[in-house]
Amino acid sequence: MPIIVNLDVMMAKRKMSLNELSEKVDLTLSNLSILKTGKAKAIRFSTLEAICKALDCQPGDILEYKE
Questions:
Q1: Which of 54-61's residues contact partners 24+ apart within 8 Å by CB, and which partners?
Q2: CA-to-CA distance for 57 and 67, rounded, in angstroms?
Q3: How confident is the model over 23-60, as pLDDT tens digits?
Q4: Any idea what the Cα angle at residue 15 is, between residues 45 and 10, rounded to 5°?
Q5: Counting runs of H as helices and runs of E as strands, what totals does the chain give?
Q6: Where is the signal peptide, in residue numbers (predicted)?
Q7: With left for phi above 0 and alpha for psi between -120 and 50, is residue 43 left, alpha or beta?
Q8: Pick from 49, 65, 63: which is nearest to 8 by CA?
Q9: Structural domains in the chain?
């Protein structure tokens, strides 16, 4: 898949655990884990916005396109 999810990279930069992000974003650990591993087929803008707010980053810091 040409869309790369760099959620784990941003979490490491912010020293935030999956549990901590899950609480801040109000998503289940399993849904965040699916997103983090790149297995998600889609993401809602509201979810992306909440993640960006919690990690103090831009959507482009999390999502990347590679052919």
A1: 54/16, 54/21, 54/24, 54/25, 55/10, 55/11, 55/14, 55/16, 55/21, 56/14, 57/10, 57/14, 61/6, 61/10
A2: 24
A3: 999 999 999 999 999 899 999 999 999 999 999 999 99
A4: 40
A5: 5, 2
A6: none
A7: beta
A8: 63
A9: 3-65 (1.10.260.40)
